[in-house]
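Re: your question about Outer membrane protein beta-barrel domain-containing protein

S., sorry for the slow reply, the queue was backed up all week. Below is exactly what I fed in.
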Amino acid sequence: MTYKHKEFDSAGRTSDILSFQAFATRRISTDFTGRLGYQYTNVTAGNAVFDNSEHRLFANVDYLWSRELVAYLTASVISGDVYSVAQATFCNGLTADDIYPLISESKAIWRDDSFNQHFCGDWFAYRLAATTTSLALGVNYALSHKYSVDISATAIDSSASDWVEYQRMLVRASLLVRF
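Result:
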């Protein structure tokens, strides 16, 4: 179980995050290890649009290629909410009328003071119920007992309604240090 408090310039985005995770790991063979798990996360923010409660199921498989190289695959399904921002009024003063169907399906809406301070136009944050799936594929190469390099790609697909979907591909390269 973990607790985090995140501070933002915008009081509406400041949040308390409580998370619980449970998993079981099993060595399948000398080279394969598997893990199944569940995670619950609850976010309480200064404004309800950034509140969230999510349930995540995940499965992970590691394959030991050599003493230095591990390949891994992780799949997740998350049931919870997503939030984003949309511009309600453009910089030239015209109304962005294409966001009204999106806002009408939202569980919460807030005039986003963070975006309104830093960008022209009028911005709204909104929250939608969503199901998100992700698939990560990566490799970890041990440089020594203290250092390793991790490279991964994660495909993310989030469906909030029949016509609101978000897709992302994240590519990461990290140098990991053991203290």
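Residues 77 and 157 are 10 Å apart (CA to CA). Residues 113-118 form the longest helix (6 residues).

Happy to talk it through on Thursday.
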